Amino acid sequence: GLLGSKKQIAKEKKQIFSNFTDKSVAFIPKLDEYSTFLAEDVKGSIVFYGPKEENHQVLDLGLKGTEFFVDDLAIRLPLPGKGNYYDALAAVAVGKALGCSLQEIKKGIEEVKPLFGRSQIIEGEITVVQDCYNANPESVEQSLDFFASISNPTEKKLPILGDMLELGQDSLVLHKEIIKKALEYNFKGLVLIGSEMARGFKDLSTEIKKDCTVMIYDSTEKGIIQAGEFAKNFLNNKGLVLLKGSRGMQLERITPLLSGGNI
Q1: Which three-class secondary structure state does DSSP give residue 131?
Q2: List of the chain residues with pLDDT < 50
Q3: Number of C-beta neighbours around residue 117 at 10 A
Q4: Pairing of β 58-60 and β 66-70
Q5: Distance from the Cα of residue 134 to its chain's centroid
Q6: Cβ distance 209 to 190 under 8 Å?
Q7: Are 157 and 149 within 8 A, CB to CB?
Q8: Strand pairing of 239-244 and 156-162?
């Protein structure tokens, strides 16, 4: 919203390297679309981190996280989703560069605990993936991909998406794209919360899948309560809910409602 584009964000991020000396080390995600740009004219050495194409030893454990191998050593990351796995690979790269042993790296990663609103799994009759500390188009898409991949053949899934704030002049287009992405999955229901989500849905009204129930609420206390009531009834008090939205939407208010509590 402030910098204007992803390229400008990449330029600002690159300032991290601006005071580097020949002894400095830059860690850059090799799968990022700006990885080549970030690496240009950087003093010191560069480490590109990320999954190796030839390494198929990665086991998706669903809500329990990811198991992967580093030099034949199994490491179990307790945070779920591909995005967290890629972040763990960054930690592996930094740990190796600092001279940590593989056992030290393994111990550190396996002891990771989720922070509030970041890949929290709150188990219950309705299990909540509470990932609502922040949101941008990339992170929402990652959350939807992960949520859709969870294997639970006997239970319904319900994504609840809140506004992505601070997107500037592209906000409407980006919200439309995310709603379209959500509708590409086989979710039977979708809840949208906030004025930007409502605006994006209105523009897509002719493209909505008929077999998906879409509900729209505002972010007031009344709207949140209505969203929670709909989720409980839609899931018949058993299933999975994804909460994903910007911090200002405070989607975590829905979580206690799903187990019979109050905001």
Answers
A1: coil
A2: none
A3: 18
A4: antiparallel
A5: 9
A6: no
A7: no
A8: parallel
